[in-house]
UniProtKB/TrEMBL annotation:
The keyword Hydrolase applies. It comes from Rheinheimera aquimaris. NCBIfam families: Gln_ase (TIGR03814), PRK00971.1-1 (NF002132), PRK00971.1-2 (NF002133). Belongs to the glutaminase family. It holds the Pfam family Glutaminase. It catalyses: L-glutamine + H2O = L-glutamate + NH4(+). Substrate binds at residues 67, 117, 161, 168, 192, 244, 262. Its EC number is 3.5.1.2. InterPro entries: Beta-lactam/transpept-like, Glutaminase. This is Glutaminase. SUPFAM superfamilies: beta-lactamase/transpeptidase-like (SSF56601).
C-alpha cells in the first residue's frame, strides 16, 4: 500500500463522519484528572516507514498516554531481562477487564500478559529493579523514539493516579505476596503511574512506534530498538491482548496489533507500512475509545490493512 496526499483528505472526511459518536462513550473518571478532559476532541495520524506523517483533527494536542505506555515499558524490560521475563508474566489473552484481580489469585500471582494492569505493574517492577532511575529512563526512551525533548509526565495526572490507585495497589500487593514483585510496592506503583501520566500527541505517538512495523529498527535514526524477534513478539501480544476483552472483536474487525489507553488513544501497528494513532477521550465499557475504534476500523477497511 502506497500512501498518497489524498490520505489527508480521507482522514479529514472520516473524522467529520465520527461527529455523532462523540456522545456514545464516557470520559474516564476513575482517575479524577482525566475526568477534566474535554470529550469533544479527536484526532487521527498515520506515520509511514518512509518518514511521512498524515493527520487530521487535533493531532498536536497532548493527551494522557495511559496504558499505551505498557508497550514502551515492555520493550525496555525485554531488552534488559531477556527470556527470563516470560517466567514472571504470561503471553495469553485474559478475557477479563484490564484491571481485574480474580484471575491473578487463581494463577498464583503470574499475570496473564504484560498489557493488562497486573502485567504492566510486573514490568514496572522489572524496570525499577534494573534501571537506576527508571522514570527518567522511560522518558529518555520516548524522547529518543520521538526525537522530541519536551515529552514529560503530567504532574496532575500522576498525582491523581497516586491518590486513586487502590486497585492497582491491590494487584501489586497480591503479586508481592506470591513473591513475583522484587522491589517495594510503592516504588513500583510510582513508576507505573508516572509512565501512564506521559503527555504525548497523535503525531508523536505514531512516529514513536514505527520500529514495531519495521522489525525493531526505528526508521529515520536507523537504530535497532529491539530485536526482530521481540518486535514480532510484542505485535503478537498486542494482537491477542492489546484491546483487553475486546481484543477478539478488534482482530475480527480490524486485524492489526493494537493498544488502547483510558486517555482515549489507540495505536495500531501496520507491519512494513507504518503506525496509525487515533484519539478521542470518551470510552466504551471495555475502556477503549469509541471514536478512535471507529477511525482505525474504517481506515483499515478502506486501505485493506488487515493482516489476516
Ligand atoms: N493508569 C491506568 C490504570 O492503571 C491505565 C489503564 C488503561 O489505560 N487501560 O488504571
Amino acid at each position: 500500500m502506497k500512501p498518497s496526499t489524498d490520505l489527508t483528505t480521507t482522514l479529514q472526511q472520516m473524522l467529520a463522519q465520527c461527529q455523532p459518536l462523540y456522545t456514545q462513550g464516557k470520559v474516564a473518571d476513575y482517575i479524577p484528572a482525566l475526568a477534566q478532559v474535554d470529550g469533544r476532541q479527536a484526532a487521527v495520524a498515520v506515520a509511514t516507514l518512509d518518514g511521512q506523517v498524515f493527520s487530521a483533527g487535533a493531532a498536536e494536542q497532548n493527551f494522557s498516554l495511559q496504558s499505551i505506555s505498557k508497550i514502551f515499558g515492555l520493550v525496555m524490560a525485554m531488552n534488559r531481562l531477556g527470556d527470563e521475563l516470560w517466567q514472571r508474566v504470561n503471553m495469553e489473552p485474559s478475557g477479563q477487564p484490564f484491571n481485574s484481580i480474580v484471575q491473578l489469585e487463581w494463577e498464583k500471582g503470574i499475570p496473564r500478559n504484560p498489557v493488562i494492569n497486573a502485567g504492566a505493574i510486573l514490568v514496572a517492577d522489572v524496570l525499577v529493579s534494573h534501571y537506576s532511575a527508571s522514570k527518567t529512563a522511560f522518558l529518555t526512551f520516548l524522547r529518543r523514539l520521538t526525537g522530541v525533548e519536551a515529552i514529560y509526565a503530567d504532574p496532575l495526572v500522576y498525582q491523581s493516579e497516586l491518590e486513586h490507585g487502590n486497585r492497582n495497589a491491590a494487584l501489586a500487593y497480591l503479586m508481592k505476596s506470591f513473591g513475583n514483585i522484587e522491589a517495594e510496592v510503592p516504588q513500583v506503583l510510582e513508576h507505573y503511574f508516572h509512565q501512564c501520566a506521559t503527555a504525548i500527541n497523535c503525531k508523536q505517538l505514531a512516529q514513536s512506534l514505527l520500529f514495531l512495523a519495521n522489525r525493531g529498527v526505528q526508521p529515520g535514526c536507523n537504530e535497532q530498538i529491539c530485536s526482530r524477534r521481540d518486535a514480532h513478539r510484542v505485535n503478537a501480544i498486542l494482537s491477542t491482548s492489546g484491546m483487553y476483552d475486546q481484543s477478539g472483536e478488534f482482530a475480527f474487525k480490524v486485524g492489526l496489533p493494537a493498544k488502547s489507553g483510558v486517555g482515549g488513544a489507540i495505536v495500531a501497528i501496520v507491519p512494513q507500512f507504518g503506525v496509525i494513532t487515533a484519539w478521542s477521550p470518551p470510552l466504551n465499557r471495555f475502556g477503549n475509545s469509541v471514536v478512535a475504534m471507529q477511525l482505525i476500523s474504517q481506515l483499515a477497511e478502506e486501505l485493506g490493512l488487515s493482516l489476516f
